[in-house]
Amino acid sequence: MRVIVDLTRCQGYGQCVFAAPGVFALHGQEALIYDPNPDDAERDRVMRAVGACPVQAVHVDGPVTPVAKGKRRARPAAQNGQRTRWKGRIVIVGASLAGLRAAMVLRREGFTGPLTLIGDEQHEPYDRPPLSKQVMVGQVPPDHTALPRFGELDAEWLLGQRAVGLDLPGRQVRLADGRQVGFDRLLIATGMSARPWFKPEEAALDGVFVLRTMEDAAGLRRHLAATDGRVLVIGAGFTGSECASVCRELGRPVTVAERGPAPLSGALGGVIGAIAADIQREHGVDLRCDTSVTALEGDSSGRLRSARLSDDSTLEVDTAVVALGGVRNVEWLDDSGLAAGVWGVACDAGCRAVDVNGVVTDDIFAAGDIARFPHPVYGYQFVTLEHWGNAVAQAEVAAHNMLCDQSERWPHLWLPVFWSSQFGLNIKSVGVPTFADQVVIAQGSVEERRFVAVYGYQGRITAAVTVDQAMWLPFYQQLIERAAPFPPELATAEGPVELRPVAAEVSDHVAATQNATVVVTGHDPGERRATLVRRRA
Amino acid sequence: MPQSSTPTSVYEQVLDQSNRANPYPLYAELRKTPVARQDDGSYVVSTYREIVALLHDPRVSSDRLSGPDVGRPGEDERSGEPPTSFIHLDPPAHDRSRRAVMRHFGPPETPGRIEGMRGRITEIVTTLIDGFEGRDQVDIVHDFAYPLPVTVICSLLGVPREDEPRFSKWADALIETLDPRTEDPERLLATTQREMSSYLNDVIESSLANQGDDLLSTLAADDPTCGGLSRQELLANAILLFVAGHETTVNLITNGMLTLLRHPDTLNRLREEPELIDPLVEELLRYEPPVHFALRRIALTDIDIAGTTIPQGASIVLALAAGNRDPDRFDNPDRFDPDRPDNEHLGFNSGIHYCFGAPLARLETQLALTELVHRLRNPRLLTDPPPYRPNPRLRGPSHLPVAFDGVAPSS
């Protein structure tokens, strides 16, 4: 059977572990690790876990009629009927988390027309977060993370088919084999790929891995099982840090090379980054910040042997995990007329894609890692959120909006929530921590590795990060939603009595769209047009 | 209740024994003012979202020593006091104490302990129902719902079952201190805790001498310098586990049988679909929860909520059972519906004080109701509503006479 836990909702109550201790486990006080594909003999216990979860975050295979979170008061059927009167063909490009979720919501909302999902991977949709945790450590086989509810969905699946072009006026998606797939409405959910090591011949060495797909995970797992030398993790974002944690758990010597000042600092700023650095070192990681890897070197048989670092050292390593983030899968949208580039696909808060002229389209939608949308809570800035929870929430909004009239459309006003489990700690975040000028430890104890950090921007709370304190996250979410003042006036049950905000040490991000070069032509308003000039590498 | 010239508040009516059998219409009245100030300066909160918000609000204290004047108790205030159980503590003391007990009760260190009791609990349930043979009626409370959890908690903690006459008296006294209407509960509490501590300490000593593997002696063997509890802390928590394991599960099982007998279609369905028991018990925890009001909380600062400001130092009464019937959160909230999706009920509370014994209560209730329904032939209520215990917080029938046409053998 298939199991998935919505870890954006999980608060670490541990009730699933009590109910099915063979399937669920707590890693430390609240980081939940589970088997996404347990034996059918566990079914009764897993079903008890589903019922027992206090936040109803455990889901299994079943009919495609889950109740959407937060939509408690269902509209009467008649109204539903009205809302879903739209008829036509829907094509979803991207058959991963966002694509699958959108398809499920389309059916749940009563869409009965033809529905096609196109995915470049051979596999049915699977869950990626376990790849750098349960799978990498060897508890769960790489092909055991398929997402529930795939089988029950009434849809045409074109898997192992890469979309290579989009013809907007002709309403066709072009596939690699030359086939054309027509649509009336399209959802773009092609997500990201792992950013490859920048020297292809070094990336090809046996022992050099990226970690994004099931194949990546399978290869890395096999290699880890067959080797015992030092592991070099290149990049200390969430994936890199989780990999380092797993390798330490496996007893491997680990070096982490991070170009920035601290692990996780890109996402959480330098203050939490410094704490993350301490945690890594406490767990025996040879952490080198402000350090980049300049070369990976192999032996005559093409096996990775060593790595050169910018601190002039050379390390003997037999494994290197390249964890340098991702690149958005937009090549197929080149020349499509959409405002798509390395920054993703621009869309409005209702998930409707924007064309190169900056005009919103009616029938093209985007969701997930690839969608760049304006977030009202963050100054209407365009953001892309590469989070599991965003893929789910945005796919639901996109699917809903694909079926209804303007007046009934939902805005994607989801506050970002994400989690990471590493070194036995559960790190969760709400809001946008990089949208900050100050940060303060509001609850708990950094020394005991259980605390809440609150982020503020110009006197307003914009984000919070919890370490093994997930139960408090909803409180801070409410503060962000209410635009509560920063620093928070907290007479909390547990000090510190005096809050001491410090600089957030968030790096100045150069907006990815600054790379967009646009040429404008024409004079009359009716003929003014923008053209994206792409820089080819 | 004596006639009074001042109108009685809705909350006071809830406390009135005459409304014990069906407080739910009053809860609907309560919800009309989500955060309602009472004459004594306390605030009753009765709507789902507001209750959940306050249960996750770090400005709300569960510490008995927090008060209007003292605010958050410092180490000095604490030093003269006997240790208290984690239910009355705030972080970080709460987290440390609860985790110390959890180490031997559940995850991460002991994940399989409760599931491992399934066989033993089934045995106890079976034996109790075997005892119904030859009778045509029983009192579900006295003959089943009380002896089951008491036997289970004794077995878990390592307390001799035959001491029941002694500890049931203490348990009753402690339950009474939780009744909002009890006068001078602190004195009753102190006396009872003293007697129970002394008794449980003897139990622990004798179990340690015999190298028992029960929960209490395992906890006692933990080193306080390595995350374990001092003996005084252990005893405070032992009293909590012992009493909480008594009364609340009795009510849950009794409420469950009562609810099933009031919903014969569901009862019949459960005979055909045994797996229905899991969502059914969750729905029971929403529909007829064993704990109607959370323990008193204190606002550590002014808290703005639902258009009201709860002032610093005010007592907060969270009406969990009213939140469970909030139509803004649950469709058709007064309908008992085991198929209800997305049932995030408050039957076990929420936040850091989420019921410690929830997994055990669930397991006992699932097994108990399953067996009752499968083995009692044609069970029926003899009185509806049944008589209720006086306590409005831990609400449940004092007796539940049920007639039946025979007992099927256990499968």
Description:
Helix content of chain A is 20%, strand content 29%. Chain A is built from eleven helices and 35 strands. Chain B has a single domain, classed as Cytochrome P450 (Cytochrome p450), CATH 1.10.630.10. Chain B is α+β, with helices and mostly antiparallel strands and 411 residues long. The longest helix of chain B has 32 residues, at 231-262. In chain B, the strands form three sheets. Chain B has a five-stranded mixed sheet, covered by helices on one side. At the A-B interface, helix 1, strand 2, helix 2, strand 30 and helix 11 of A face strand 3, helix 14 and helix 16 of B.
How many angstroms does the end-to-end distance of chain B come to? 50 Å
Low-pLDDT segments of chain A: 64-81
Total strands of chain A: the figure is 35
Which pair of chains has the greatest number of interface residues, and how are they split between the two chains?
A-B, 48 and 50 residues
Backbone structural class of chain A: alpha/beta
Mean pLDDT of chain B: 92
